[in-house]
Amino acid sequence: MPNHDRLLVQILLLALLGAALWVMAPFISALLWGAILAFASWPLMRLLTRLLRGRETLAAGLLTGMWILLVALPLVWLGFNLADHIRDATTFVRDVQVDGLPEAPSWLAGLPLVGERLVAMWDTVDQQGPALLASVKPYLGQTGNWLLARSAQIGGGILELSLSLVFVFFFYRDGPRLAAFVLRLLQRLIGERAEYYLELVAGTVQRVVNGVIGTAAAQGLLALIGFLIAGVPGAIVLGLVTFMLSLIPMGPPLAWIPATAWLVWQGEYGMAVFLGIWGTFIISGVDNVLKPYLISRGGNLPLVIVLLGVFGGLIAFGFIGLFIGPTLLAVGYSLLLDWSRQASTRPPLA
């Protein structure tokens, strides 16, 4: 009978745990974002707590308010500016449909071998502009739906980020107690290796955060250089926008593509070509090289494990998978190493 009572208690506890996870499911991603942000900026929290003489709640409130000013408000401003860019692009397409393309630039005809042919193609497109737009009109609706879906995803991401900034306050305030609670749970599950795996997860997340922030800073700086060379107005603001957009997948093109279109509209075709090439191969291309390097730097994981974790996590979980993927593979890889070492130290059977 006591065994039956114990089994019933275990079933009830599992059911309660499942119900709790079901209730928290809509907020899991925001909770993860809050935990990652709090962990990455924990040195600031400790410094601010010391300056405020141990008043953790006040320090958590001030630091959370700082993140709202630095992250949430610029993203809202960015959303309004993206709407303006979309409106300008719509006006550009309508003007092309009515007035046609501007005259072909003089340097285009001067290109060896292909210059005259490109000018002829330019004139053909200009003359057949209305017919061309009519032929692609069925695809414009699909493109609009795709852009609408991407805009909805960006809007959902901004809302999720705003919610995570609410959660980060509680992670700041109760961080040490939560860390101790997690350590006790891991000790019950895996014993003496709990602290090692907790440090492994913490180190992996820290390297991923450094890789994401470092890559975003590099892309923002490269974008600023490109905008200054091309003569785009507001280069510093666009560089900061590129830095913020670099934190989301395929974000930087949302900054340099409108700038390239503006150069074309102003007749600066040479600079538009330069900025398009700079954006494609330098600004956006550095993400594929610098981020995996920074994430793998300082750790003992093979680079292939890191690359699989980064790109596989992005595909499986979205942007939050950038942190989940490498962490899961790091823990799994370490578990396999521990298991293989323990197996090799066992005495052979007689």
Features:
mainly alpha, 14 helices, 350 residues, elongated
What is the CA-based Rg, rounded?
27 Å
First and last CA, distance: 42 Å
Based on helices, strands and strand pairing, what is the structural class?
mainly alpha
Helix/strand order, N-terminal first: HHHHHHHHHHHHHH
User: How many beta-strand elements?
Assistant: 0
Low-confidence runs: none
- How many alpha or pi helices? 14
Q: Major β-sheet, in short?
A: none
Mean pLDDT: 77
Percent of residues in beta strands: under 5%
What is the overall shape? elongated
Helix share of residues? over 70%
Return the domain count: 1
Description:
Keywords: Cell membrane, Lipoprotein, Membrane, Transmembrane, Transmembrane helix, Transport. This protein is mainly α and 350 residues long. It has one domain. The protein contains 14 helices and no strands. The longest helix is centred in the middle third of the chain and has 62 residues, at 129-190. It starts with a helix and ends in a 5-residue tail after the last helix. The mean pLDDT is 77.
Q: What's a quick, concise take on this entry?
A:
By secondary structure, this protein is an all-alpha fold.
How are the SSEs placed, and which strands pair?
Elements: H1 2-24, H2 28-40, H3 42-51, H4 56-99, H5 106-109, H6 115-127, H7 129-190, H8 194-230, H9 235-245, H10 253-265, H11 269-283, H12 287-296, H13 303-317, H14 321-345
Helix pairs in contact: 2-7, 3-4, 4-7, 4-10, 8-9, 8-11, 8-12, 8-14, 9-10, 10-11, 12-13, 13-14
